[in-house]
Amino acid sequence: MFFESLDIAAITAWAVEHHNSQGTVLMLVAAKEQDQVPALLQALKQKGIECFGGIFMRLISGPETFDYGCVVARLNVWRSPFMVNNLHRTDFSLDHLPQREELPKHRTLAVFADADAPHLAELFPRLYNRFGNRVQYFGGGAGILGAMTAQQKRCVFSTEQGMVDNAAVIALIDHPSTVAASHGWKKLHGPLLATRSEGNILHELNWQPAFEVYRQVVEAQIGKPLHPEDLGSRVSHGFPLGMFKKDAEDIVRLPSAVTEGGGMICIGGIRANSVVHVLQGLPKSVTKAVDQALQACKSQMASPPTCNLIVDCVTRYWFLEDLGADELVTIQQGLSQLGSAPIIGALFKGEIASDGLSSLEMLNKSVAIASFI
């Protein structure tokens, strides 16, 4: 359901109408509505309705995107959503999360996290070590691109904890689902070795300052100088990094800024000793990834879905320009063949989509689909 504004009375009335004892409201909110979220959470809490979600630059409803309003869905959950705090520190705790054997099997763990939390990359292997293939995983990084105020940094929320930063809100969605993701970027240069990294900063590639190595590869392709301030431009969006993953696409990482020592900040981080490639994407070849994700969903679908969630990378969408909108139309057309379930989502700063059969990673530059039955 798409609301054109954060109308507290209208959204609360909708939530009350669709409420049941197992239901929780998933809410994805456009950044320009952020100031109204605390009041809305309070109104829902007074009605005994749980809610969780995040703040995003643009929302998806059907084949269109919007920079205003919010999208909502009522989903059954197993227990109330959990919040993992202190992702700006290495000693954040998962001790309050349930044990693996407690979770119902074959359900989906939804994870919405502050994409700019310095130690976010460390959350995913720890989640996987705790829950493994007991569940699937789906979600991504919340927040906006660029400089943020203290209020804007509080980009994930729940009715219990309100709006927070350096955190991830987690809920076990108690519906069968299919989850798939793809990106379509190809290897241009490498392999390289990530010889030094810390948190979300890649300091060195092949024992050299990471930006210097990256700059030389990209300049050879674009035929002009690449400056530190160019990271985040459409030029750099066409040349992300990829961490090698056996028998699968590389895990994409987008350099977003250069540090004083010549390192690069990468959303999701790159672990030390990872094998890394510089990737390249041509818009028409990148959009073919949607067909792969749709086919994967269709091949797993046993009955028509009741809700479809789309997690699309914001920098992927910008890089594709008009083809980004075409990609959403393709998703709409493909999912409509499975039934008339609503299609909602947002443009994320990093994507999470895993069937639980391999290690869990934050993706970048990808499009992910979860269809809940």
Summary?
This protein is of the alpha+beta class and 373 residues long. The protein is built from 10 helices and 24 strands.
Structure description:
This protein folds into 2 domains: 267 residues, no CATH class; 95 residues, no CATH class. It contains 10 helices and 24 strands. Strands 1, 2, 3, 6, 7, 8, 9, 10, 11 and 23 form a 10-stranded mixed sheet that branches. Strands 13, 14, 15, 16, 17, 18, 19 and 20 form an 8-stranded antiparallel sheet that branches. A hairpin with a 3-residue loop joins strand 9 and strand 10. Helix 1 runs parallel beside helix 2, helix 8 packs parallel to helix 10 and helix 9 packs across helix 10.
Protein topology:
Blueprint: E1 2-3, H1 8-17, E2 23-30, H2 37-46, E3 51-56, E4 59-61, E5 64-66, E6 70-84, E7 107-114, H3 123-131, E8 135-142, H4 150-153, E9 156-158, E10 162-164, E11 168-173, E12 177-182, E13 186-198, E14 201-205, E15 208-209, H5 210-222, H6 234-237, E16 241-243, E17 251-253, E18 255-258, E19 264-266, E20 275-280, H7 283-286, H8 288-300, E21 307-313, H9 314-320, H10 322-336, E22 343-348, E23 351-354, E24 367-372
Parallel strand pairs: 2-3, 7-8, 21-22
Antiparallel strand pairs: 1-6, 2-6, 3-9, 4-5, 4-22, 6-11, 7-11, 8-23, 9-10, 12-24, 13-14, 13-20, 14-15, 14-19, 16-17, 16-20, 18-19, 21-24
Helix pairs in contact: 1-2, 8-10, 9-10
